[in-house]
Fold this protein.
Amino acid sequence: MKTKAVTYKQKKGKKFFVKEGLPAVICQEDKKKIFYENEEIKILNDDIITTDEISKESIDLIVTSPPYNVDIEYSLHNDKESYNDYLEFTGKWLKKCFDLTKEDGRFCLNIPLDKNKGGQQSVCADITTIAKQVGWKYHSTIIWNEGNISRRTAWGSFMSASAPYVIAPVEVIVVLYKKSWKKTSGTLKSDIDKHDFMNWTNGVWTFNGESKKKIGHPAPFPIELPRRCIKLFSFIGDTILDPFLGSGSTLIACVKNNRKGIGTEIDREYCELAKRRFINETQANQLRLILKE
């Protein structure tokens, strides 16, 4: 007698192996995905594309810096796909983020302006086009002057018109929204002062990047980046998502600015790093507040 192939069934939010003549067994893939959680933040050891741990239309603002596909040595992610495969992957996670965001939700997407490693590509233009194709609406682009001109090593044909490389030492933060740019949900309480509002609505931001060695992650971004996005584009109490949590900078910025945060990260080691950073940074912040009093 031939045995039927194993299939999956959903029951009360869990996956089961179902085989004829045998009792259902909880699938090993249904391991707990909530890596860390408290009243303010949640770290999910999960893939943003397939996760079912975040409710649809529950996110006010997304702030993230996805893999750049420039051969960074992540523990699990392949950062050296063909450019077409990379754009296909990008379309999938952008669509999932679109589904998770509220009707008046926003999206701050930190990506390269362009790249020349592995061939010149107009990364910002291509990803922005895909974002619009899956439903996002374009609002504006912020130029992040990271001040990394000294790290440059590629010149093409040096001091010759033969084949010089033109490389802008900046990254961008593409600002998108779902349906309506005017935000009408949430507490409607802002916490940005006049000085910061005037400076940050000027679309060139200048602050340093983050040290890989100091943080222990191959591509960390500084807390200053999500801090500005959160204060400028969300209300107090809003829920912020980082679908590529990495070292946890976005969640730290959330708690320090009275927002709720959710981060997904496929690498369990990076989940641990984000958790450790979050606990250390926020405890230090609480201590400073107590000492001030």
